[in-house]
Amino acid sequence: MSTVTGTTEPLAKPGGRPAPAAAAGPGAPLDLGELAGLRTVRARHPWRWAAGLATLVVLAQFAHGLATNPGWDWATFRLFFSADAILRAVGRTVELTLYGTVLGFALGAVVAAMRLSRSAVLRSVAWAYVWVFRSIPLIVQLVFWFNLSYLYRRFGFGIPFGPTFGEFETVGVMGALGAAVIGLGLHQAAFAAEIIRGGVIAVDPGQREAATALGVPRWRQAWRIVLPQAMRGILPAAANEVISLFKGTSMVYVMAIGELFYQVQVVYGRTGRVVPMLMVATVWYVLLTTVLSIGQYYVERYFARGADRTPPPTPLQRARTFVRGLRARTATAATTATGGRS
What we know:
By secondary structure, this protein is mostly helical. It has helices at residues 32-36, 46-68, 74-81, 84-115, 120-135, 138-146, 148-151, 170-173, 176-201, 205-213, 218-248, 260-271, 274-303, 315-341, and strands at 6-10, 38-42, 154-158, 164-169. Helices cover 69% and strands 6% of the residues.
């Protein structure tokens, strides 16, 4: 329910004088006749209107510059935006994001469980992993994994500190794409572990205590009681990390992998059209981030069912309601006009 703020003033009489106020003073109640003569005056906010107008002027000036400045070179932008090389690079960017997200959150869940463990050894190892991989920049990690064959030319499997049953060349297994996926996944796992741990410890401990008192097994407590409640705290931060990883895939250009930013560099290095090609990458990043944000909205809405009995309508539902209301008003107006003519 909306309220109208403002002041009340007595209505003027036909002779130009205002209606009489209460004669008994400010503390005396007004009678119904005087209340009926009061009118509501909206509060004025001139600075709010001035700030809004100034913002619109700045946005209009920026849009005018986009449309008229020849430096943006929109013809080149249109030429390369949907080029085959750019589309393949977009697909490779999405592929790296998917692999890094799956590996990162799978390993992050294990690290989070280790940090929540009662074992001092597991807690210490998990803490050290998070500390190290959050401290080293992503580009350094990628270059390190890309040059892993320099340190370990061959890998083998067998008994620890004992005989080896089989070996293989590192350079034959760890290619550029594999190194990129491992680097992105291990980097993502350190942040995902803290996100998952934060969501789990945010759940009221009384939930687990009650489940234990009822004899619910620990794995069922985690899967059916703790995790659904923790997801509400995990999802927003996890979505931010996925979006950061999606943009962080541009770091693999140092490994000459044909993702979006690398391909844009190749094109503007050949054509010299730096600004329009950067705009190609920018628009693609914005579009894909928008898709991820829409997915985040619906996943969060799904896991909010236990807290919100009647969740608010989605943007699509609001749009449908608006269209139905507009059609109803149009039909009513048409019926009224037809009845008036008859």
